[in-house]
Structure to design on (492 residues):
């Protein structure tokens, strides 16, 4: 299949990005500064990301109000959508009948409809999945780019161009007029830092990106550093840390299932896999996603088997994401281990190139988040 | 100085050869965060995977450029793997080896041949 190009492609090339295929899109992997410098610049100032490959989707109620769309969506997600106020956003996931995770997504209530952001790799499947719902129309958004501006300088940089965004709180969603057209802005992101995601008309995307990059301290960041940033923040990546084979409870995402959808709640269950997922919430998971801190400098990457002892024959778990955390200054990983080995401080061994290297279970995130709650 | 198609440089130093990777390779690999070096005294055959370089992006193998014995490794890389990015041709060397046959060096690329090779 031919690669798809975002509206920002000419800018990436002008900035000297190293481009590469990702989920069917030609995306900037890194700019000349490199992954480490981009990561650190985002943490110190602000990073600008092109996330236009992600699926933007509107759910319109056929009749009545947004509550109808919310009620419909609740059939596919274990999340309280009906209770999500206008102007607010929430993390959600599509679950499978077996209790696995088909995709994770963001849901915003934009007053008279819902705005969803799906992972690029799953966008088409997600739109098809939504097509089974009654009482709504599913509108894949075309003609808009999606930018993320993340880091401590994000608020100041964006507010200078779009006054009003400084007043937004974490997970607020707003539509704001700007010289770049109507912007759909949420105060959210996937780096663990304060920041915004900005849906912008495609023909204004380069102008907005240029205006943001002109601000002192704002640097372009590619997918390489996006991955190390989200890993430090302890945020799971679908297809890697969360899949159809992992349930939300094992994935340590039980917090995303609000009381109203749990056993005893007013709208308990009613989503795919409710049986196994609610049982796992009640009984506790048999295995769980944890943070892992390798003792040496050798990164433990995805696929590294984990052992309870240096000489154990059978692995007890596996690393699902791993690399180097530039802000932590050390290798960091996350992975799944049995419930009795999840206590912080538990010592395990990861097998890297035939050597058993010690690794310690640690709390997530690796670095405190700085959301503006 | 001689070069391999695996982007190693080899610099003769008496009866030993100092081995590292080229600036081109270091740039392509990106920020290097860990270098797994062999034990001094290891006997290696040309093509053996003897060094693993971990960049922020991925792990890459470095192959033994010649038959011989590893006699010394760059201990400074343990604490400061970024030396490979900062100074690939001097401070970022990987190991010194005693080749089984010093004349094998003649079969490797010269600097101008290497420059043509990387285009």
């Amino acid at each position: 299949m031919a690669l798809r190009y975002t509206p920002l492609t000419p800018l990436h090339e002008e900035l000297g990005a190293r481009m590469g295929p990702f989920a069917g899109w030609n995306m900037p992997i890194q700019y000349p500064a490199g992954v480490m410098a981009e990561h650190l610049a985002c943490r110190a100032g602000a990073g600008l990301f092109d996330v236009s490959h992600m699926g933007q989707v509107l759910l319109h109620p056929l009749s009545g109000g947004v509550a109808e769309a919310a009620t419909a969506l609740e059939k596919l997600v274990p999340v309280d959508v009906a209770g999500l106020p206008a102007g607010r956003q929430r993390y959600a996931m599509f679950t499978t009948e077996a209790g696995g995770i088909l995709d994770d997504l963001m849901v915003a209530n934009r007053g008279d409809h819902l705005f969803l952001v799906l992972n690029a790799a799953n966008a088409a499947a997600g739109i098809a999945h939504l097509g089974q719902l009654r009482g709504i129309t599913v509108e894949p958004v075309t003609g808009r780019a999606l930018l993320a501006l993340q880091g401590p300088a994000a608020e100041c940089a964006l507010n200078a161009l779009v006054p009003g965004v400084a007043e937004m709180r974490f997970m607020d969603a707003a539509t704001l007029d700007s010289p770049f057209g109507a912007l759909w802005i949420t105060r959210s992101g996937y780096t663990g830092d304060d920041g915004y995601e900005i849906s912008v008309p495609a023909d204004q995307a380069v102008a907005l990106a240029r205006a943001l990059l002109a601000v002192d301290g704002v640097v372009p960041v590619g997918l390489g550093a996006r991955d190390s940033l989200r890993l430090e923040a302890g945020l799971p990546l679908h297809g890697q840390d969360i899949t159809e084979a992992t349930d939300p409870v094992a994935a340590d995402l039980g917090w995303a299932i609000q009381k109203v959808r749990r056993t005893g709640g007013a709208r308990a269950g009613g989503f795919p896999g409710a049986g196994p997922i609610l049982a796992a919430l009640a009984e506790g998971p048999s295995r769980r996603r944890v943070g892992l801190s390798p003792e040496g400098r050798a990164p433990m990457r995805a696929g590294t088997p984990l052992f309870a002892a240096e000489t154990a024959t059978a692995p007890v778990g596996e690393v699902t994401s791993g690399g180097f955390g530039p802000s932590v200054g050390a290798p960091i990983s996350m992975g799944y281990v049995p419930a009795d080995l999840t206590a912080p401080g538990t010592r395990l061994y990861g097998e890297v190139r035939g050597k058993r290297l010690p690794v310690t279970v640690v709390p997530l995130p690796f670095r405190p988040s700085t959301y503006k709650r | 100085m001689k070069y391999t198609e695996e982007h190693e440089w080899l610099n003769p130093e008496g009866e030993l050869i100092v081995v590292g990777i080229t600036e081109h390779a270091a740039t392509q690999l990106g920020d290097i965060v860990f270098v797994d070096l062999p034990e001094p005294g290891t006997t290696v055959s040309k093509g053996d995977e003897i060094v693993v370089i971990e960049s922020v992006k991925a792990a890459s193998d470095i192959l033994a450029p010649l038959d011989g014995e590893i006699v010394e490794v760059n201990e400074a890389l343990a604490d400061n793997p970024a030396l490979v990015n900062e100074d690939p041709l001097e401070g970022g060397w990987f190991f010194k080896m005693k080749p089984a046959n010093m004349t094998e060096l003649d079969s490797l690329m010269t600097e101008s041949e290497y420059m043509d090779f990387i285009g």
